[in-house]
């Protein structure tokens, strides 16, 4: 019988709503190689690399009556040209036009009757650049059987001469409805504890899904339970959202964060102030400026509670991949006027959670090679979607990437921006990826709730400058 979705994976299908698409994306920008890069080249790369991951040619099929979780089956009508698409901007396309394109494309749901991923080649950017935009459903990405599609497009080796000829692929026969029911009954006899836990559509509060996710990893500790008793503070970030989005990208330099860390990380716990802490302090300062610019009431005790899936890595993330995603809940001290004090408060809070064992382990990844950040953003977003949205105001995923160039064929990737989805009732999500000397933010927001998303993007840049200069607001 085909593979059955876990209850957590199935929940991302059942909980998908018109306003909350359960997929994650990435936007990768490339310099053009001398010989050019076109749609056929991208098609060639994808075609030759997805063979190692069968999930990319499989679709989800429900069991009649939903008596068990759905199963993965080969798509007998798999059409590569449907999944790998071509789009263009009016030349010379600007970053703003690319952002508008991403904001239109990303919220659209993936076709459930086909494998749950899409790739767009976006041509026409200024200076001959092009972008590759990806979408991959949460149900597909578990970090073991399948990764984000962006993971297989880029490589650390320039060129694609090393690609082996694509092996012939013959889809397996799809099971009949009767076979699906029989398989479900057999599973119920062989593994009763894995079949009892069904997640059906129409669930209003999915905190139990988050608890099951943590239990399955063996790390259900006290943080979630304690936080559940203290709902997130009221915030303009928590409103009813619609289907339309705004998406903005912010590019910064990794050296700036290292400079801030080396200058401000002093004292007994200096070594425990991480690059991730500096990123969060930068975001906290951006929120402070944005809230004040909106005329919101900001007192010395004001906070924005962030759910932060933390990828674990060494002191310097250069060239290293995380092997675990941990979820922390941290109050960003937007009421604190001092930039350096905001950093130390955040570092202390994060250290308490990590040292005290209060982080909830979400997923451990073994032998993860290639371009890991898109997959880790997806795993973090999966965890955020599974937790109750009453527990936090905003999700921030910060994933370290390689500090050496990556390539799609002969085209060098110059920057990469995550697109993390919105949860119901949350107007903003922030994804951050470091890559080859840069730190890249992707701000995804509800279009109506955040018409001033560009102001927040600018405030983040100003906040980093404030940390660098030592100024206090």
Automatic annotation (TrEMBL):
Annotated metabolic or biological route of this protein: Lipid metabolism; Glycerolipid metabolism; triacylglycerol biosynthesis
EC number(s) per entry: 2.3.1.20
Pfam families: WS_DGAT_C, WS_DGAT_cat
Alphabetical UniProt keywords: Acyltransferase, Glycerol metabolism, Lipid biosynthesis, Lipid metabolism, Transferase
Reactions listed under catalytic activity: an acyl-CoA + a 1,2-diacyl-sn-glycerol = a triacyl-sn-glycerol + CoA
GO molecular function: diacylglycerol O-acyltransferase activity
One annotated GO biological process: response to hypoxia
Record's protein name: Diacylglycerol O-acyltransferase
Organism: Terracoccus luteus
């Amino acid at each position: 019988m085909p593979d059955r979705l876990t209850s957590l994976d199935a929940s991302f299908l059942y909980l998908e709503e018109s306003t909350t698409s359960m997929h994650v994306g990435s936007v990768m920008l490339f310099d053009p190689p001398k010989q050019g890069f076109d749609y056929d080249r991208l098609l060639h790369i994808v075609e030759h690399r997805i063979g190692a991951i069968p999930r990319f040619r499989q679709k989800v099929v429900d069991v009649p009556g939903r008596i068990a979780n759905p199963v993965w089956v080969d798509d007998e009508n798999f059409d590569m040209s449907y999944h790998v698409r071509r789009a263009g901007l009016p030349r010379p396309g600007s970053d703003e036009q690319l952002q508008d394109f991403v904001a239109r494309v990303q919220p659209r749901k993936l076709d459930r009757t086909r494998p749950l991923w899409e790739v767009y080649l976006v041509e026409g950017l200024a200076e001959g650049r092009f972008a590759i935009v990806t979408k991959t459903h949460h149900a597909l990405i578990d970090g073991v059987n399948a990764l984000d599609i962006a993971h297989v497009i880029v490589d650390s080796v320039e060129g694609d001469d090393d690609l082996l000829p694509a092996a012939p692929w013959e889809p397996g026969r799809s099971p009949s409805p009767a076979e699906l029911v029989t398989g479900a009954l057999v599973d119920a006899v062989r593994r009763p504890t894995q079949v009892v836990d069904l997640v059906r559509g129409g669930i209003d509060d999915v905190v139990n899904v988050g608890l099951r996710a943590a239990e399955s990893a063996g790390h259900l500790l006290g943080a979630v339970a304690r936080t559940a008793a203290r709902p997130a503070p009221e915030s303009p970030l928590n409103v009813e959202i619609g289907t339309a989005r705004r998406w903005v990208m912010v590019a910064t330099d990794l050296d700036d964060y290292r400079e801030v860390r080396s200058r401000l990380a002093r004292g007994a716990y200096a070594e425990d102030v991480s690059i991730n802490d500096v990123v969060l302090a930068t975001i906290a300062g951006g929120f402070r400026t944005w809230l004040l610019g909106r005329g919101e009431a900001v007192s010395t005790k004001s906070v924005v509670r962030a759910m932060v899936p933390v990828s674990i890595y060494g002191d310097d993330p250069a060239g290293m991949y995380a092997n675990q995603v941990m979820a922390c809940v941290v109050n960003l001290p937007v009421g604190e006027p001092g930039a350096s004090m905001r950093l130390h408060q955040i570092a202390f809070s994060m250290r308490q959670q990590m040292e005290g064992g209060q982080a909830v382990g979400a997923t451990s990844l073994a032998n993860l090679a290639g371009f890991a950040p898109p997959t880790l953003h997806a795993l973090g977003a999966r965890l955020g979607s599974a937790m109750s949205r009453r527990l936090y105001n905003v999700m921030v995923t910060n994933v370290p990437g390689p500090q050496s160039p990556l390539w799609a064929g002969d085209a060098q990737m110059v920057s990469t921006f995550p697109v993390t989805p919105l949860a119901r009732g949350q107007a903003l999500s922030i994804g951050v990826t470091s890559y080859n000397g840069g730190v890249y933010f992707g701000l995804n927001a509800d279009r109506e709730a955040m018409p001033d998303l560009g102001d927040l993007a600018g405030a983040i840049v100003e906040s980093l400058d404030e940390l660098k200069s030592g100024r206090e607001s």
